[in-house]
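Feature request, filed as a ticket because there's no other form

It would be nice if the structure record came with a short human-readable summary line next to the tokens. Right now we just get the raw output. Example of a typical job, pasted below so the devs can see what we mean:
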Amino acid sequence: MSFNHKLFLDASFLEFASRLDLEFAAQARLKCCTHCGGTLHFARYRRKGRLLDVVLPEDWEFFHSLCCSVEGCRKRVRPLSIRYAGQSPFSVALYLLAELIQTGGSERSIISLSKELNISERTIRRWLSLWKKIYTNSIWWRKIASVWMLSGKTLSDFWSLLLTTKKTTKETFQDLLIKIAEIWSETKLFVTYKIPAKDA
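Raw output as currently delivered:
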């Protein structure tokens, strides 16, 4: 499959990812705390993001976390994110790119992909193994597979089908990124956790 990842690492992609993450956080903030019903407030914190050798905008340093306003609860909530794949410092875009560029998992394709993305072969092997477990067990993927008759197939197959629609390559890629953010949330990598006490 011919796929040029550089198309999605320009300024427009970075702006898209930043805007979408902020929208995800705003949508999550409208919901109440699942533990006590309290109001959620923004509580951003710094994260070190990685996206190949691209110089990232300043706002990529922050994750749009949310925090319960009720004393005694103070739970944090992680909204969906395009810029971060769970606890990984990599953007979900790289996980999708690895899936789309990789062609069957052969030694040659993994080495080629490692050079193309400037990421270690070990990391790519871990991504591909993780993806096989995650998206095939995803509720979203099972629904899509039943509708598109994709049982036993991959996101790469789904990508090929989506490209037959009237959407542009860029729009198709962006749509898939949103779905991947949803898949990550299903794996419970976006967990609710308690803020440490200030004197801790």
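Something like this underneath would help us a lot:
Residues 189-200 have pLDDT under 50 and may be disordered.
The chain has seven helices and six strands.
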